[in-house]
UniProtKB/TrEMBL annotation, chain A:
Keyword Oxidoreductase on entry: yes
Name of this protein: Aldehyde dehydrogenase family protein
Keywords linked to the UniProt accession: Oxidoreductase
SUPFAM superfamilies hit by this protein: ALDH-like
Domain (Aldehyde dehydrogenase) ranges: 27-258
PANTHER family, A to Z: ALDEHYDE DEHYDROGENASE-RELATED (PTHR11699)
Gene3D superfamilies: Aldehyde Dehydrogenase, Chain A, domain 1
From TrEMBL, chain B:
Keyword Heme (UniProt): no
Ranges in a coiled coil: none
InterPro entries linked: Ald_DH/histidinol_DH, Ald_DH_C, Ald_DH_CS_CYS, Ald_DH_N, Aldehyde_DH_dom
Segments of this protein annotated with the region Disordered: 460-485
Domain spans labelled Aldehyde dehydrogenase: 31-477
Official protein name in the record: Aldehyde dehydrogenase family protein
Biological source species: Streptomyces flavotricini
Biased composition (Basic and acidic residues): 462-472
Keyword DNA damage attached: no
Swiss-Prot/TrEMBL keywords: Oxidoreductase
Pfam families named among the record's database cross-references: Aldedh (PF00171)
Top-rank lineage group of the source organism: Bacteria
């Protein structure tokens, strides 16, 4: 039996992009070689073009109305479903993350577990963030008003370069938990866990287009996404200082909300709420309260 | 009709305010000349009378003011919050005491009616300082983590449409959170900020905590660019806001921007017409329409267009335009000759593009800067007057048939600051409010402001919020250096 198994040729996977709920190759037909931490060839990943990036924005915009309009409860259910689907494919991701980041099996397993748990954490936030950051304001006058957070819109996410999976999920999940849709540029060096994540998202009831995943060069796609007039915000987590500055300048064209790169020593630490609030708008709705008459007890 | 309702003049007395012939920059607790000795004049827009001559700050003065603010930051930020609070409470009280004087001064320097400065600007200014005074010793409970820290020196650049109110929106939260301030008022309205400097002295505020630099855009740009400024807060045009966003790219400076708007005021067929007309008038003619959140696009449901327009025109014919110090005046002067030229040019573009222009019979004073209340009908979404911020008393009227169409038209703008909804149907208010991409939505009211309530825009109307608990965020560093809170 053992000899039979060892002679069986295993099936390689063609890694593809995840855009609009589908798995296209790059329209450019380009790929680049992805290697493990020791330089061994792992796969040919799509080298996404600016056209792929534009297509991803169209998909993300199309998905925004439905996703932002879904109930927070529903978004929480779907984020939790992502955790469930990841748990089922845990072994695959332990292998991919281990290869990508040069981690031992036990360390890679800890990273994947933390990533699964991160989805659970954000799944719980979807219907709580509004109560934490919004509320009624005590107006000095006969008015009632209520401030509520709303998603900013389409968010470009330049994912972390080193933490190809836990870092990636730590920047995607807060963006979509609050109802934004995302165009994600993966780690250039280690895109495979991100591309495989697309397969998980596709089977988690997440509507197509809510998360769009592009492998390739942040320096190539970033400027087009940063200056894109239909993108509302950009998370520069994975951009180096020079690229971050360039993209921040481009982002000013339509006043995108910009989350600058911040040093992160440990992606497994408590994420707090700042990655969610960075891509939330506050809307305050006013209405007169009227009066029931001067008696004061007209109930 | 006018003859039936002749009013005797009822001017507020100018004697409550004593304007000096010249003012210096307020740096480190002293009034000083600009380093290069430059000065400029500030005029009353209603009469073109020169009110005073003020120092014109340059880059050297900016540097000096930032140094003073940096020095003051050490002790100011180390003060217990409860002590900072008491300074702010003192300031709030002195503003209340001197509110008539400040209202008259603001009306003289800005051109807006005394009715507005007295009943809107000044009460809101005092309330804003009271509100943030109370936060100074409660920041641990504000939801930004335990022991949130101030950022350092805040460089703040404010516009001319609500000079003292914008100062309050900037300075009150900055000081409450332990920052120190260098503030540049607009070149056409420097005076109330300089009087505020005197209030800081009366309140015994430590030197250098508040510095006021009067001057032009170059001083504002130098302030934004100064390497020792940690926070930039700007209210003004979207074009300048974008320039600032580019300037600070790649730095650690935190920024909040309150920029332009083209607010949609949506009137459904079941709205109470008389109330809606009052709201429309308030929405676009308050402060001569020189308001970033003005309801400058009126979206009327087609079936009530004629009825509403008749009522609106009738109401506009009763508006009183003239001496801003007169207590009966509804419409004051445009703030400057430049602004008047901008409004005039945009209105001419509206006519040239085929929209129908209407103004009530309205005599304009012979001196000063004036523009009659103006309506444009037959406006489409492609017209310049429906797209560009005019920042004047000019209302563009469009129509719609369904709520969906109203929402689509309202959101068809680069801006997203304010919107209005007029309907008696509660569920429609909530459904439409939910879909509008705007930071402030007024339902069955318009242009209401309150220090407890966050204000600010979506899209190119800027980012960050001023007012309320939300207004603290722009002046606090996260409690955890990794950027988490």
């Amino acid at each position: 039996m053992a000899t039979v198994e060892s002679t069986r040729l295993n099936v390689f996977k063609t890694y593809k992009l995840y855009v609009g709920g589908k798995f296209p190759r790059s329209e450019s037909g380009r790929v680049y070689e992805v290697t493990d931490s020791k330089g061994k060839w792992l796969a040919n990943a799509p080298l996404s073009s600016r056209k792929d990036a534009r297509d991803a924005v169209v998909a993300a915009r199309k998905a925004f109305g439905g996703w932002s309009g879904a109930t927070a409860y529903n978004r929480g259910q779907i984020l939790y479903r992502i955790a469930e689907m990841l748990e089922g494919r845990r072994e695959q991701f332990v292998r991919e993350v281990g290869e990508a980041e040069g981690l031992s099996k036990s360390k890679a397993a800890a990273v994947v577990d933390a990533a699964i748990d991160r989805w659970v954490w954000y799944a719980g936030w979807t219907d709580k963030i509004g109560q934490i950051v919004g509320g009624a304001n005590p107006v000095a006058g006969p008015f009632f008003n209520l401030s509520t957070p709303e998603p900013t819109g389409v968010v470009t996410v330049v994912a972390p370069q080193d933490s190809s999976f836990l870092g990636l999920i730590s920047v995607i999940a807060p963006v979509i938990a609050t109802g934004n849709t995302a165009v994600v540029i993966t780690s250039e060096k280690s895109p495979l866990p991100a591309l495989s994540l697309g397969e998980v998202l596709a089977t988690s009831d997440l509507p197509g287009g809510v998360v769009n995943i592009l492998s390739g060069k942040a320096a190539e796609m970033g400027p087009h996404l940063a200056s894109h007039q239909d993108v509302n915000a950009i998370d520069l987590a994975g951009a180096d200082a020079a690229l971050a500055k360039e993209l921040e300048i481009a982002a000013a064209d339509n006043l995108k909300r910009v989350l600058r790169p911040q040093p992160v020593d440990d992606w497994s630490a408590d994420p707090g709420t700042s990655r969610m609030t960075a891509f939330l708008e506050t809307k305050t709705v006013w209405h007169p309260t009227g009066s029931l008459g001067s008696g004061g007890s007209s109930y | 009709m006018a003859s039936l309702f002749e009013y005797a003049p009822a001017p507020e007395s100018r004697s409550v305010v004593d304007i000096a012939p010249s003012y210096g920059l307020f740096i480190d607790g002293e009034f000083v000349d600009a380093a290069d000795g430059k000065v400029f004049k500030t005029v009353s827009p209603s009469s073109e009378e020169v009110l005073s001559e003020v120092a014109q700050a340059g880059a050297a003065d900016v540097d000096r003011a930032v140094k003073a603010a940096r020095k003051a930051f050490v002790t100011w930020s180390a003060l217990p919050g409860s002590e900072r609070a008491k300074y702010l409470f003192r300031i709030a009280r002195i503003i209340q005491e001197r509110s008539r004087e400040l209202a008259v001064l603001e009306t003289l320097d800005n051109g807006k009616p005394i009715k507005e400065t007295r009943d809107a600007d000044l009460p809101l200014v005092a309330a804003h300082f009271f509100y943030y005074a109370g936060w100074a010793d409660k920041l641990d409970h504000a939801g930004y983590g335990a022991n949130p820290r101030p950022l350092g020196v805040a460089g703040q650049v404010i516009p001319w449409n609500f000079p003292l109110l914008m100062l309050a929106w900037k300075i009150a939260p900055a000081l409450a959170t332990g920052n120190t301030v260098v503030l540049k008022p607009a070149e056409t309205t420097p005076l109330t900020a300089l009087f505020f400097a005197d209030i800081c002295r009366q309140a015994g505020l430590p030197k250098g905590v508040v510095n006021i630099l009067t001057g032009y855009g170059d001083a504002g740009a130098a302030l934004v660019e100064h390497p020792d400024v940690n926070k930039v807060a700007f209210t003004g045009s979207t074009a300048v806001g974008k320039a600032i966003a580019r300037q600070i790219a790649g730095t650690d400076k935190k920024v909040t921007l309150e920029l332009g708007g083209k607010g949609a005021n949506i009137v459904f067929d079941d709205a109470p017409i008389d109330q809606a007309v009052e709201g429309i008038v308030n929405g676009i003619f308050f402060n001569q329409g020189q308001v970033c959140c003005a309801g400058s696009r009126l979206l009327v449901q087609e079936s009530i267009h004629d009825e509403l327009l008749d009522s609106l025109k009738r109401r506009l014919s009763t508006l009183r335009l003239g001496d801003p110090l007169d207590k009966n005046t509804d419409i004051g002067a445009i703030n400057s000759a430049e602004q008047l030229a901008r409004i005039t040019a945009l209105a001419e573009t509206g006519e040239a593009e085929g929209a129908e222009r209407w103004s009530p019979a309205c005599e304009l004073p012979s001196s000063g800067y004036w523009f009659a209340p103006t309506l444009f009908t037959n406006v489409t979404q492609a017209h310049t007057v429906a797209r560009d911020e005019i920042f004047g008393p000019v209302l563009s009227v469009l129509t719609f048939r369904t709520p969906d169409e109203a929402v689509a038209k309202a959101n068809n703008s680069q801006y997203g600051l304010s919107a209005g909804i007029w309907t008696e149907k509660g569920s429609r208010i909530l459904a439409v409010a939910n879909k509008l991409r705007a930071g402030v939505v007024w339902a069955n009211t318009f242009n209401k402001f309150d220090p407890t309530s966050p204000f600010g825009g979506y899209k190119e109307s800027g980012f960050g919020r001023e007012g309320g608990r939300h207004g603290l965020e722009g002046y606090l560093a996260p409690s955890n250096p990794k950027g988490e809170r």
